[in-house]
Amino acid sequence: MSLEGRTALVTGAGSGIGRACARRLAAEGAHVVVADVNAEAAGKVAAEIGGTPVTVDLSDPEFLVAWRGQLPPSPDTRLRADIVVNNAGFQHVAPIEEFPPEIFSAIMRVMVEAPFLLARAVLPGMYERGWGRIVNISSVHGLRASPYKAAYVTAKHALEGLSKVIALEGAAHGVTSNCVNPAYVRTPLVENQIADQARTHGIGPDEVVEQIMLAPAAIKRLIEPDEVAEMVAYLCGPAGSFVTGVSIPIDGGWSAR
Ligand SMILES: NC(=O)c1ccc[n+]([C@@H]2O[C@H](COP(=O)([O-])OP(=O)(O)OC[C@H]3O[C@@H](n4cnc5c(N)ncnc54)[C@H](O)[C@@H]3O)[C@@H](O)[C@H]2O)c1
């Protein structure tokens, strides 16, 4: 129970990797604020782990106002968090010349601006208490590109930069900031991608996984959300206290090529 007494905000915690992170951090004793645009999903996960659900759309620049209104009253009006896991995200696949600009903007707001706004809100408190952990769920696409994922690749690369700047500014105040970079994780986001690609290429879902998704990886399987959550718990726990400003691939050897 290395995180007893800590409060962790996990965005997109209603599903997939975020849900696994929320459960894992709660198992370490943290009180978890389960934030998601999907109220039902946030409520379910929060009930499961004794956390606080927050319904929030991170594509709305005013999301912090909605967020504050749902948290239990605190003597401190600022957003209190010892740990932030920036996980919420989604993607859209299209060639650049057909990529809708409004979807590009929405992806940038959720995956780059929201982590920036959250950092602005929580860092002063972390600095005062001399302890904080920011973990950004980036991707292999934060380190390398794929065609047709302009917004996703751009957003993840930007998140890598933000994470390093926070690491440099936070170091003197006991705050670490890191990225975790998974390849394909078995979550609803990936299940949808498998179905889309099966339709596009006229092949079955198993062929999509084997022939397309796992092609660059050395270990030929999808990752489980708990395997990502384990790395997040490591970065937030005592063993991770000297690790900052890095990006850790969990990609079955993809980035070794
Ligand atoms: N699944 C993968 O293979 C994979 C690989 C690398 C990185 N990632 C990253 O991991 C993160 C989580 O992905 P996942 O696969 O668990 O996806 P998921 O679709 O299972 O879960 C994403 C969650 O984010 C929430 N969300 C989406 N838009 C939101 C918004 N505007 N405001 C608040 N919440 C919002 C959704 O409601 C959902 O609960 C994403 O940032 C994704 O880019 C996923």
Automatic annotation (TrEMBL):
It holds the Pfam family adh_short_C2. It comes from the Bacteria. Its EC number is 1.1.1.30. SUPFAM superfamilies: NAD(P)-binding Rossmann-fold domains. Keywords: Oxidoreductase. One of its GO terms (biological process) is monocarboxylic acid metabolic process. InterPro entries: 3-OHbutyrate_DH, NAD(P)-bd_dom_sf, Sc_DH/Rdtase_CS, SDR, SDR_fam. It is an enzyme of class 1 (oxidoreductase). One of its GO terms (molecular function) is 3-hydroxybutyrate dehydrogenase activity. NCBIfam families: PHB_DH, PRK12429.1. Belongs to the short-chain dehydrogenases/reductases (SDR) family. This is 3-hydroxybutyrate dehydrogenase.
